[in-house]
Amino acid sequence: MNLDIHSGVIVATFLALVTGLLALISGIRSIRSGSRLNYFRKRRERLVRGWRLILFFVFMLATAGMINRFAEPVAYQFFPPSPTVTPTPTITLTPTITLTPTITLTPTITETPSITNTPSLPGDIESKFESTITPNPSAVFSPLVFATRLDKNFQPIDPAVEFKNPLSTVYGVFSYDQMTVGAQWSALWYRGNELVCYETLPWNGGTGGFGYTECSTPVGGWLPGEYEVQIFTGSSWKISGRFTITGEPPTPTATATATRTPIPSPTTGPSPTQPSPTPSPTLSPTSTPTITRTPLPTQTRRPTDTRQPTATELPTG
After folding, report:
1. 214: phi > 0 → left, psi -120 to 50 → alpha, else beta; which?
2. CB 131 within 8 A of CB 234
C-alpha cells in the first residue's frame, strides 16, 4: 500500500477521533450503569471508570488536533517530499471519414499538432561548466512556482504567474529528487529569445528537497512580456516554467555628478609670433683694482770721494 505523509496524517487524525468517541460512549454508559447500583463499592468503581474514559476522550480529542496541525510539517523536516512527475499525455491520431456527395468514403488526415522543440543549452554556457561529475539521468524536478519573496523554508510567498512593475528579484521555486551532489546544473531566464539571466554551477544541495533559482533586475530592467525559465542538469533539459511581467520598469534617475570642466584648447592656427626678448642689461665688467706695486726709488749710491791729489814736495832751494 502506497500511503503518503498527507494521507497518513488524515488517517491518524481520524483514528484518534474514533478512539476518543468510543471512550466517551463507554464512559457515559459506565456512569449511568454505576449510578443504578445499590452497592457502594461497585457503584464507585463504575463511576470512576466512567470519568476516566471521559478524560481519555478529552485527551484523544487534543491529540487528534495536534496530529492534524503539527504532524505533517514535522514529518517533512525528516522526509522531504519528492516531486510527482506529471505524465506527458500522448496524442493518438484518429482518422475521420468525410462523406462526399458521391458517397465515396474518403478518409481525411487530421493535422498533426506542431511539437515544440526541446530546449537546448547554449554552447557558451556549456563551456563554463566546472564539474566533471555525471548528473543522474533519473533526476526529476517539480513544476516551477514563481514569487517575489521567499520564507525561511524557501517556500514562495504569494506565488503568481503575472507580476507588475516595479520589481527587483523574481524567484523560481521547485522541489527535486535523485540529484547528484557536485553535478553541474543550470537555470536560464529568457524573455522571448533573449537570455536575460542565467546561473550554472555544481549542485550544492541534497539529493531531494526544495530549491530555487533567482534573477535580480536584468539589464534594462524587467521589461513587459512573457518570460521562460529552463532548468538543465548537465546539458539535459528537465523542466520549464513561464510567467508574465506587466507595466514599464521605472526609469533610473540620473544623478548629477560634478565633473571637471576641461579648459578649452587653443584653436589650431598659425602660431603666434613670439615677441623678441628684451635684451637684459649687460653688466659692464667691474674693473678690479689691482694694486700696482710702485717701486721705491733706488737709492743712488753716492759717488766715491775722489781722493785729493797728493801734495808734491817743493824742491828745496
Report:
1. beta
2. no
